[in-house]
Amino acid sequence: GRNMLIYSYSADSNQEFDIKLFASSGEGKSYYDTEGVEIEEIIFKGSQAYTWQTDEITYLIWYQDGIECHIVGNLNKDEILKVAENISK
Fold this sequence. Notes:
It contains one helix and six strands. The protein is mostly beta strands. It has a six-stranded antiparallel beta sheet with strand order 1-2-6-5-4-3, with helices on one face.
């Protein structure tokens, strides 16, 4: 398997999200059910990133410093991006 680190956050306002960080050895892949959703491809922190929404859950996936980063939660896209902007080594 891959080395993985997960942070889970929740607030009194019923907002919840997870940050998942995977050591990117090139061996593992992540899979999400994206059937029927529109996936937006963006450049984030100089890397190709993907974001989409299903029901009330927003997803953001990108690579940073050799780490595969995922943020998944019931925040909107702008809030997810703000969280992601503050992730650093």
